[in-house]
Design a protein that fits this description.
56% helix, mainly alpha, Cytochrome Bc1 Complex, Chain D, domain 2, globular
């Protein structure tokens, strides 16, 4: 994704209602990764947003990093969450990747979550190994 595309996506996402955001997340998950994908393949979907820190925070070294600790402008929900959950453990990342909105109600992450437990475990393992 280019810089211009990332800015356009962020602007578009900001203009959506909560219902539209939910529909977009459902659509993304329908066409997103499913069981059998490698960590690299799963991570490539993350990079659609996370390769540009103006759109989403960098995921490198996220495991065991303080929650909401980079220069990214985090949502109030994420900042509040960080008070009770100071560090991204592998277990916490697994829970979040399964259902971001359930784990952190009000998060601005548009991804609906990974329905497939094995894909979530594979992605967390990839993030552990990503430095």
């Amino acid at each position: 994704m280019s810089w211009d595309q990332a800015v356009a996506v962020k602007k578009l996402y900001g203009s959506l209602t909560n219902e539209q955001r939910t529909r977009l997340a459902d659509l993304r998950s329908h066409y997103g990764p499913s069981q059998g994908f490698t960590g690299t393949e799963l991570y490539q979907q993350c990079l659609a947003c996370h390769q540009n820190e103006n759109v989403a925070p960098d995921l490198k070294s996220i495991v065991n990093r303080k929650v909401a600790s980079t220069a990214f402008r985090y949502s109030p929900a994420m900042l509040q969450f960080s008070k009770d959950n100071p560090v991204w453990t592998d277990e916490l990342l697994f829970e979040y990747l399964r259902s971001p909105q359930k784990t952190i109600p009000g998060t601005t992450m548009s991804f609906r979550g990974l329905d497939d437990t094995q894909s979530a475990r594979t992605l967390v393992q990839f993030l552990i190994e990503l430095h």
